[in-house]
Write a structure and sequence with these properties.
Belongs to the YciI family. InterPro entries: Dimeric_a/b-barrel, YCII. This is YciI family protein. The chain is an alpha+beta fold and 111 residues long. The chain has a single domain, classed as 2-Layer Sandwich (Alpha-Beta Plaits), CATH 3.30.70.1060. It contains three helices and six strands; from the N terminus they run E-H-E-E-E-E-H-H-E. It has a four-stranded antiparallel beta sheet. A two-stranded antiparallel sheet has the order 3-4. The two termini are 19 Å apart.
Amino acid sequence: MKYMMFVCTDTEPDTDKAAEPDIEVWVSENDARGRRLEGSALAPTSAATTVRVRDGRLMVSDGPFTETKEVIVGYDVLECADLDEAIEVARAHPMARAGRLELRPLVELND
C-alpha cells in the first residue's frame, strides 16, 4: 500500500536530549528497502502560491492562507505492507521528534 507522508514542523518538539536520527541514513535505508519511493524538502512558505477559483474567477496570491505555525516542509511517498509498517518507518524519521509526520493512504483512481 502506498502512503503519502507529510513532514511538518511542530510548535512542541520532543525535549529528549538523545541524538536525533540522521536523515541521510533514514533516506538511504528506506530507499534500499524499497519503502521510500520518492521524497523531497519543500521551499519555504514565502515561496508558495495559492490558487483558487471562485464564481468562475481565477484568484492567485502569494503565500499560503494559514494561521498555523505548523507547516509542511517536505514529503515522502512510502510503499509499505500496511499502516503498522508505515508507522514504524515514520517513527524512525528525525522529524518524528523535531516535528510531526502525517500518514495518509494514497487512493488508486480507476480510469
